[in-house]
């Protein structure tokens, strides 16, 4: 077992904008530590549903020295443009937009780290474009959903409501109201996905835009309908195609509850049968533990990165402070 003494490093962030045919994705690239220690280790972070690129801000300082971290706001999230009128958001469309964006950034190979819905997106991306993904890290998401007519109908209803809402004048909140709503929204997901005030303040700058009188949400109301349930059993089909190393980090108060434990074990069995290797780690915390308590996630993540570099990419220098 690798023992890691983690000391947070300064992260130098640079904003970027990626133009796609339909609009623009906003994001940022961070370098951990001194630029002189720049390694060729690249990590692409993918945020969760109705979160944004800031979700990795607290984890980034604990990554190995010289790591380059690219995080984009998904379409309809954060500072990125909303999809055109008549479009809707689903996992495959997120994957395709992400693929176009990383290709424009000329990121040929990288480690994928996804949280929640971002892990679902990363899982599908890894199966479809294996030549680009060195390793895959899933942060508290391994819950295949059943395809039901009811769930699809509910998403359609949310989509149509969102189409109406986006035409209306946005609701304006005070800073305190916006923070409270960010916390409440993640508590009411029914999966113990609580964040604290500090975490809410990290998300706020990209979750909302400042307008006269306060803050208005920046996400597309249509993005509330994500159609994840349409995957159903096809989740296992995608997962069975993954050959690279995989790390699953499950929060003990996250979405892997006793109610889905059987499904969780079934999914792990698919990874074990096909991935180069699978590491599964449970950490103390809620669904957003990577944001609220980043050290708890950083320790198994860095250990995993060490093994990835040692066994699959020996040419990649990894300068972690041990």
TrEMBL record:
GO cellular component: membrane
InterPro entries (alphabetical): AB_hydrolase_1, AB_hydrolase_fold, AB_hydrolase_sf
Keyword Hydrolase: yes
Lineage: superkingdom: Eukaryota
Alphabetical keyword list: Hydrolase
Start and end residues of each AB hydrolase-1 domain: 44-152
Signal sequence, renumbered to the chain: none
Classification via Pfam families: Abhydrolase_1 (PF00561)
Gene3D superfamilies given in the database record: alpha/beta hydrolase
Keyword Hydrolase: yes
GO molecular function, one term: hydrolase activity
Cross-referenced PANTHER family: MONOACYLGLYCEROL LIPASE, SERINE HYDROLASE-LIKE PROTEIN DDB_G0286239
The family this protein is said to belong to: Belongs to the AB hydrolase superfamily.
Record's protein name: Putative serine hydrolase
Source species taxonomy: Eukaryota, Metazoa, Ecdysozoa, Arthropoda, Crustacea
């Amino acid at each position: 077992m690798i023992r890691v003494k983690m000391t947070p490093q300064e992260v130098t962030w640079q904003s970027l904008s990626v133009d796609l045919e339909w609009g623009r994705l906003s994001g940022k690239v961070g370098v951990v530590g001194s630029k002189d220690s720049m390694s060729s280790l690249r990590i692409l972070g993918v945020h969760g549903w109705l979160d944004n690129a800031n979700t990795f801000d607290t984890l980034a300082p604990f990554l190995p020295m010289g790591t380059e971290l690219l995080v984009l706001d998904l379409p309809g999230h954060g500072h990125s443009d909303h999809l055109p009128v008549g479009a809707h958001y689903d996992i495959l469309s997120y994957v395709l937009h992400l693929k176009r964006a990383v290709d424009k950034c000329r990121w040929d190979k990288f480690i994928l780290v996804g949280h929640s819905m971002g892990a679902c997106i990363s899982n599908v991306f890894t199966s479809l474009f294996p030549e680009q993904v060195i390793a895959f890290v899933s942060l508290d998401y391994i819950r295949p959903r059943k395809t039901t007519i009811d769930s699809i109908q509910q998403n359609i209803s949310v989509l149509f409501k969102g189409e109406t809402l986006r035409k209306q004048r946005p609701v304006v909140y005070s800073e305190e109201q916006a923070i409270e709503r960010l916390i409440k929204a993640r508590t009411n997901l029914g999966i113990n996905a609580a964040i604290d005030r500090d975490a809410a303040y990290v998300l706020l700058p990209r979750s909302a835009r400042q307008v006269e009188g306060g803050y208005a949400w920046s996400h597309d109301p249509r993005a509330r309908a994500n159609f994840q349930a349409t995957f159903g059993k096809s989740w296992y089909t995608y997962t069975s195609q993954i050959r690279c190393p995989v790390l699953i980090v499950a929060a003990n108060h996250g979405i892997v509850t006793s109610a889905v434990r059987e499904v969780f074990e079934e999914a792990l069995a698919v990874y074990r049968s096909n991935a180069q290797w699978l590491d599964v780690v449970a950490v103390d915390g809620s669904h957003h533990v990577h944001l609220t308590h980043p050290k708890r996630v950083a320790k198994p993540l860095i250990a995993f990165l060490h093994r990835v570099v040692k066994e699959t990419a020996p040419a990649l220098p990894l300068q972690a402070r041990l």
